[in-house]
Amino acid sequence: MEIDLPVSASRPKYTKNDFVSGAEVRWCPGCGDYSILGTVQQTLAKFEIPRENYVFVSGIGCSSRFPYYMNTYGFHTIHGRAPTVATGLRCVNKDLSIWVITGDGDGLSIGGNHILHAMRRNLNFNILLVNNQIYGLTKGQYSPTSPAGKVTKSSPYGSIEHPINPLCLAIASEATFIARTLDTDPRHMGAMFERAMRHKGVSFIEIYQNCIIFNDKAHAPVTGRDTREDRMVYLEHGKPLVFGRPDNKRAIRLNGLHPEIVPFDGKTTQNLLIHDETDPRPNHAYLLTQLVYPDFPVPFGVFRCVEKPTYDDLMNNQIAEITKKKGPGTLKTLLYDNSTWTVP
Amino acid sequence: MTPPANNPPTPANTPHSPVESGRVKKGRTALATVRFAGDSGDGMQLTGDQFTDTTAVMGNDFATIPDFPAEIRAPAGTLPGVSSFQLQFSDGLVFTPGDRADVLIAMNPAALKVNLHHVKKGGLLILNENAFDKDGLEKAAYAANPIDDGSLRDWQTIKVPLSDLTTNALKEHPLRASEKERCKNFFALGLMFWLYDRKLDHTIEWITQKFSKKPEFVNANIAALKAGYNHADITELMPTRFEIFPSKLESGTYRKITGNEATALGLIAAAVRAEKTLFYGSYPITPASGILEGLSKHKEFGVKTFQAEDEIAAIGSAIGASFGGALGVTGTSGPGLCLKSEALNLAVITELPLVVINVQRTGPSTGMPTKTEQTDLLQVLFGRNGESPLCVVAPRSPADSFDMAVEACRLAMSHMTPVVFLSDGYLANSAEPWKLPDIDDLPSLRAAHPTASDAGTFKPYQRDPRTLARPWALPGTPGLEHRIGGLEKQNISGSVSYDPDNHEKMVLIRADKVARVAQDIPPLGVRGPSQGKVLVLGWGSTFGTIHAAVDEVNAAGQGPVAQAHLSYLNPFPTNTGEVLKNFERILIPELNLGQLLMLLRNRFPEIATRFVGLNRVRGIPFFVSEVRQAIEEIL
Description:
The complex is a heterodimer of chains A (344) and B (635).
Chain A: H1 33-45, E1 54-58, E2 73-76, H2 82-92, E3 97-103, H3 104-110, H4 112-121, E4 126-131, E5 134-135, E6 141-142, H5 166-172, E7 177-182, H6 186-198, E8 203-208, H7 220-223, H8 228-231, E9 232-234, E10 250-255, E11 258-263, H9 283-289, E12 298-305, H10 311-326, H11 331-335, E13 341-343
Parallel strand pairs in A: 1-2, 1-3, 3-4, 4-8, 7-8, 9-12
Antiparallel strand pairs in A: 5-6, 7-12, 10-11
Helix pairs in contact in A: 1-6, 3-4
Chain B: E1 25-28, E2 31-39, H1 44-57, E3 61-67, E4 82-90, E5 101-106, H2 109-115, E6 119-128, H3 134-139, E7 156-160, H4 162-169, H5 177-181, H6 184-195, H7 201-210, H8 215-235, E8 240-243, E9 252-258, H9 259-274, E10 278-282, H10 289-296, E11 304-307, H11 311-323, E12 327-332, H12 334-350, E13 354-360, H13 377-382, E14 391-393, H14 400-415, E15 418-424, H15 425-429, E16 431-435, E17 483-485, H16 500-515, E18 532-539, H17 543-555, E19 561-566, E20 568-570, H18 576-581, E21 583-590, H19 595-603, E22 611-615, H20 624-634
Parallel strand pairs in B: 1-8, 2-5, 5-6, 6-7, 10-11, 10-12, 12-13, 13-15, 14-15, 18-19, 18-21, 21-22
Antiparallel strand pairs in B: 2-4, 3-4, 9-16, 14-20
Helix pairs in contact in B: 1-6, 1-7, 6-8, 7-8, 9-10, 9-14, 11-12, 17-20
């Protein structure tokens, strides 16, 4: 469900700078997080939501320093637990715009359990998962999204683990809004953040991010300037998945359950896979997650956007309903219930 | 019941009158301890509850203790499947469920075997003869039938074919044979009602309401109850019948309450008085789940219960709720508290109010989940990384759990600190009469929050000069945007700081802040003389046992012995040292290996040699006789 958010009209209420806390940003020069931070600040400035109603909640890791740099309310919690703190906050305040900032280690390893349940419950907050396929703050160990064979400080002979695809986890949890974007495309990132803000329910956005120190160019084979036209595909609702250089446009077609790449003439969409982000079944979105490098172009954009009652609404509605039925509680009736007896 | 801290000692209770053989005698007794035992499926907890309710309505003081296995339904008739319930009631005040029972009713051989050592020598055993068949004896691993082999010669044994008598009494009732047999717990209850001259009407009313949708069960259960009562009356089965006069309780309105129930009600009351939403994040765990279940019923108070995916999420959500301005509470038992440690430290460093209920059970690890212990005191004080001070309070009885839950909330919100509430498995499930408080006497717990008008001067770590509490600024307040977190913060400004001197300063401020809580708690009271030879000092659920033991010693003329009980374990009341220094020996009974003892020896080294520990870790409360003996040994 989309919610109507007041958007600044001719004279914006806020500028990007209103969301800059002034704390010295301590990410490494060239870190992808700078662009994510700037884009979030820019996105918030487009809306008229009062600044005091934003809360950024994070765990531990490079990306989790995020709240300190936002001139909003913020809570830098402990490793993997940001969704739990956000859950409690969401349950007691329905007016806040809550953002959980996490990474591939924080969100998928130590905090995997919480992110799964936050998505399953459809809590109304936005989760930005910054995926650089490495442990940065602990200085270079493999993460749950590092590819098999990855040589890192803790896997000098190559990682023997199979990576998890964050979007598969989101879909398995039936998150109601799922998207993927990348740090080098602020325009696309901003569009995804805006969509997430307008979505009522949990929003999960995986951001391909570059760790310039410990895992430089990890995403470059897909998102690199020279390769992206052929190896990335931008999802658009109701349209085929078209990618490739102008002289070699291609699209995706389904052969049974299997996707295959076919040439695209710019017109004929018959037989092509048409993107439907509103499909209530998770099958379509899951199929898209299986488009991976090097066999397929990697999809970016909104994989899934469906409506479902939020946990916080259900909680508040149940309380309202019971209170209406029983009448508001008083301590007198609570303590002096029907099991009392009197000693004269 | 729990008397006010300085109640005068009650006269010693006279022992159970000896039962004479031959014709039924009408006896009178001052107090009695009865025990119901059977298979998990026999409804012994329910039977015990009904006996208790009737006893309460008839005006007696009482204390109960259930004793049930962790297994839901171990195979019927086996030793692990035995479920028991013990109750002590009196015409005076009662402080414990009784050391050993005067009467045991055992529904099968396994129940007898598991419970025999809980019965006084010379006590009465009422045995369901029908269950003492070959199969039943084998399941209980009896080589010979204890009814016949003389092994019960130290007790008075009464054989009753409970199953047959119940089925016969219900011959005309339209139930299946197995359903009739299952009414035997009410037949047994009828026998016990006769034995202690109890009225049947309260239970009849309860049965009528409970089974209102199934009239055939109403009729059958009432018939079984009356049949048991009449059977005892007509057959003169039991040699004596006892009468217990009502207790002289303080006038007022009472209800029966367990520790878990009282804790839940206390949390709600605190939220109402604080005009805040109560948020309770918890993951089911024995023996704390009752609090989650109790709170989830009370949505009409706006109570938000969150059954989290794990213990960490439970406390994380409570911290988030507290950050948002609600009364954030999480509840668990020992193993769950281990999991919460890191998040508890987050609440310590962010200086948010948080109440952590720990219903202690035996450890280490899973231990004996349904059994009680006081072994988490040092864990809650020291079981976290860094210098991590927080407040610790402990209720002394089921009813006191209400007051101490309110206290925990009060201290958390007024001092911006986590407060751990140390209940235990015994308090959680035991019941006693609770004299209901006057609602208007409950303190107002309204917390102050900075507002938009403070925007110019607000600093997240600017402290109240008296308490050192930092301001509780809520998201959504214009102009107070700030960031908190697990990284050390610069004093006052709240920005991230790695400055060595600042860190040391913050460590000391946090410690001082918690120490200053002592300004706002009542002094330690003494029951009995304020100086002398022996003081018995306890904390938590040992209160009733110590009270009864001290009374016995004093009544026997061996005293005077004084009693003090710590409701506040960190910080201690400011007069603690003064109180202790006035006694030559200080006996500290604890259901652990000496945790309070260790703290006191460290805190008061000048009197360290005066402290004497009494330490048991068997998963059950102290017996009064054990504490009494320990007192006698140092007198």
